[in-house]
Write a structure and sequence with these properties.
about 110 residues, mainly beta, 7-stranded mixed sheet
């Protein structure tokens, strides 16, 4: 499966962005999918995931209430709605699809200015 992330950009603190991750080659319903992020000089950090069935979502406690993951099976696209953004949310955001192998998108830069 190939993943193409988009939607990143520059936003002021308190603003919102919606990231998209379009999949080709396989349907998302065959995979658990989600997002990680990596800030400069830091390790990759888990952001959100949605189960293969789409019935459950997962977030780290630090992001609950601000970030929402969703998917559109018909469009084979994964989304990440990010609200109340903070400068510490600045990172490259990567989508992934996990089956027997984990596929990664190329990343999209999110920069939050104070």
């Amino acid at each position: 499966v190939q993943l193409q992330a988009s939607g990143g950009g520059l936003v002021q603190a308190g603003g919102s962005l919606r990231l998209s991750c379009a999949a080709s080659g396989q349907t998302f319903s065959n995979y658990a999918v989600g997002w990680f992020r990596q800030a400069p000089g830091k390790e990759r950090e888990f952001v959100a995931a949605i189960s293969r069935s789409g019935s459950s979502t997962h977030y780290p406690d630090s992001l609950k209430g601000r970030f929402t993951i969703s998917r559109d099976v018909a469009k084979n696209t994964l989304y990440l709605q990010m609200n109340s953004l903070k400068p510490e949310d600045t990172a490259v955001y990567y989508c992934y699809a996990k089956g027997g192998y984990t596929y990664w998108g190329q990343g999209t830069q999110v920069t939050v200015s104070s």
